[in-house]
Records
---
Amino acid sequence: AQSVAQPEDQVNVAEGNPLTVKCTYSVSGNPYLFWYVQYPNRGLQFLLKYITGDNLVKGSYGFEAEFNKSQTSFHLKKPSALVSDSALYFCAVRDGYGNNRLAFGKGNQVVVIP
Amino acid sequence: ETGVTQTPRHLVMGMTNKKSLKCEQHLGHNAMYWYKQSAKKPLELMFVYNFKEQTENNSVPSRFSPECPNSSHLFLHLHTLQPEDSALYLCASSQDPDRTYEQYFGPGTRLTVT
């Protein structure tokens, strides 16, 4: 079955510094990868996805993610973090072969320090 | 806003009560989902509906009963719940259940079982 690992519980970064949130995945076939963000008392909001094509995917609010097949990773990045980026970030994967279920990681809390 | 609304936003119920959660999507999507979100755990998929037909039940206890009268509305009927059922219940929709489409989430219902 497909699965996602988000190794860090919390990521602290100073405002203006680069932000990276790590994600590794496991699937049987080709991966379809997604990032979502959750602000307090809100549902998840879609940020970006990788289905096929260019390994660097650009999404909402200046975020991007790089698909690395050899390392089975899909890390989320932002060149310059804002205080308003403080939220819970979820990586998710669907298997391109077999089970269609969307598997989520446990989430990473990002804290951007002014 | 994501185009997916959920009511109520907060619900406190006793173990012998019967209540219902409501979800409505205004995106013209054909697939709808119920998820359970508990602290420090990955999102748990509960049910999937495609064109009003249930296509997945992820071994959910029978005290949770979904209903999908049309592609825009989804309900979760609750009865004789347990305290461990306290969680944030999220509704989501997507264009269809195909694995390449992202899901759009509502704000959730915070359920407390006393």
---
Amino acid sequence: QKEVEQNSGPLSVPEGAIASLNCTYSDRGSQSFFWYRQYSGKSPELIMFIYSNGDKEDGRFTAQLNKASQYVSLLIRDSQPSDSATYLCAVNRPTGNQFYFGTGTSLTVIP
Amino acid sequence: ETGVTQSPTHLIKTRGQQVTLRCSSQSGHNTVSWYQQALGQGPQFIFQYYREEENGRGNFPPRFSGLQFPNYSSELNVNALELDDSALYLCASSFRGTGELFFGEGSRLTVL
């Protein structure tokens, strides 16, 4: 079982729609959760992080965490073509100070 | 831009050779982590350095080694290169305790 699992996609949404990206993790001891965006040929950049159960909003982005279900999601409202990228879910385990990344979900926003 | 710089950006090596990759961390950050990202995959944790000591290691063989210097910059060394070592190598700096990683643009290694 992988530490972090994501649907690799590709996920296509029309411009202006809501994109929903999902992630599950295996270690219940995980404490912090991150979403990174990676454009083709570029390095990952941090979008959001969440530590507590519930929702966290930042502009058009909302991260949701459910520790009981070991589930993290990212919602992108009013999707723009510039949001087209691969979205990586990452989980931080205190033991070994390790970050585990999923394989990423490829998102395409169609104008 | 994250303020994390890596060099070289691209390099080509042959099997059996050795390679050294370099990373300068963002100002104020005291922790450096290295990741390997194969094509179509997420980054895989290699190791982390804090205060010049290895502070966590992923599932990579000993031929992957590293250093952190007093100015918090870091090196990744890979000996006895194999074809499967071809990947994008990412350096990420952070301030210990915050958990937020800031990545450099990466070094793309091709092993022939």
